[in-house]
Amino acid sequence: MRLEFMTRDIWEALIAGVLIIGAAFVFLRLYLDFSRPLPADDLDDPTTPPKGTSGS
Question: What's the alpha-carbon Rg for the chain, to the nearest Å?
């Protein structure tokens, strides 16, 4: 395979494109994580004692 077309400018553009696409995936993942509804406070929290117990 001949890579004479792969000049420094094309290589830098490829790297910039990969970085931009990766950043877009990062922002999408963060947006989806922070915009999802939070779970209920007392359903799955192992640090709180069950209701009706004295706790001591």
Answer: 25
Domain positions in the chain are 9-36
Average pLDDT over all residues of the chain: 83
What are 8-29's pLDDT values in tens digits? 999 999 999 999 999 999 999 9
CA 18 to chain centroid? 17
Q: How far apart are CA 3 and CA 10, in angstroms?
A: 11
- The tokens for 24 are 């877009």
Half-sphere exposure of 9 (CA within 13 A, CB side): 1
